[in-house]
# Entry
Amino acid sequence: MQNGNNKVEVIIHVDDTLDDARRSGLTGALEQHNGIYAAEFCPLRYHLMLINYDREQFSSQDILRLVSNERVTAQLIGPI
# Structure
């Protein structure tokens, strides 16, 4: 169950140029993790991802690791 007090959103910069299918696969893979509520790329800024997650289950470094584990080069920008 989602607790609004534990919900946080971070921005991840993806260095790689990804096509639509790869972006969709990446967001889908992240959203399969319990505790990640949403993952999306910013419209017209396809190098920036917004990831909404439960901070009780993940740290921002955990989120960065999950993105990197999908074979993309990424950097943590920070919370929103």
Remarks:
- The domain at 4-79 is CATH 3.30.70.100 (Alpha-Beta Plaits).
- The helical segments are 20-31, 60-68.
- The mean pLDDT is 93.
- The chain has two helices and four strands.
